[in-house]
């Protein structure tokens, strides 16, 4: 049995739920942004349990994802939080947030500098004066060297087990783009299903990220290893 995309959005979000330690990730992100004392925060991407932890800590949170299916999953996990369907290249906000958190390597889908520039310009427009951006990215020197994208990863929760087997093939060096193929095998309540996924992902170098941010009106304040082994984070301020 092969799942439909609508079914798979739920499976994909559960995979995030069970493979990522939301509490530890939220603590990591908060430690990076707390010195700037943001109150109103835009959270972009499907790490909804991380967003839930940050909302629990008292941040005035707005969550954005770009598909109907993932917005549905966000509403299940985040009752009472403002949730919008929007593309990060065209966010419907102007000077509204103290901070933007783009966590979970969602920027990987900006496959060329034009799209990356549109997204960063949209972030810049959405932030208040001197607003802060936390953004993480797959790193070009790491993306093809871990089990996360080149091997088997299992996730287990109440009455469900998800196993993902995946591999990458490099398409280009500048930008650094890989084609990623994955098979998700799901056992849930005694039933089995399978979903195959394939898409291109972009990884960045730290110097490349710094340059793109500079062109989009941001000053890079800090970069370092992220909460996982495949990526790095950047803290930048709107100039």
Question: Topology, please?
Answer:
Blueprint: H1 5-19, H2 22-33, E1 40-44, H3 48-56, E2 60-65, H4 68-77, E3 82-85, E4 97-102, H5 113-126, E5 127-138, E6 151-157, E7 160-172, E8 176-188, E9 191-203, H6 206-215, E10 218-225, E11 231-238
Parallel strand pairs: 1-2, 1-4, 2-3, 4-5
Antiparallel strand pairs: 5-11, 6-7, 7-8, 8-9, 10-11
Helix pairs in contact: 2-3
Structural notes for this entry:
This protein has 239 residues and is α/β, with parallel strands linked by helices. The protein has two domains: 172 residues, Vaccinia Virus protein VP39 (Rossmann fold, 3-Layer(aba) Sandwich); 52 residues, S-adenosyl-L-methionine-dependent methyltransferases (Single Sheet), CATH 2.20.130. The strands form two sheets. A seven-stranded mixed sheet has the order 3-2-1-4-5-11-10, with helices on both faces. A four-stranded antiparallel sheet has the order 6-7-8-9. The protein is globular, with a radius of gyration of 17 Å. It starts with a helix and ends with a strand.
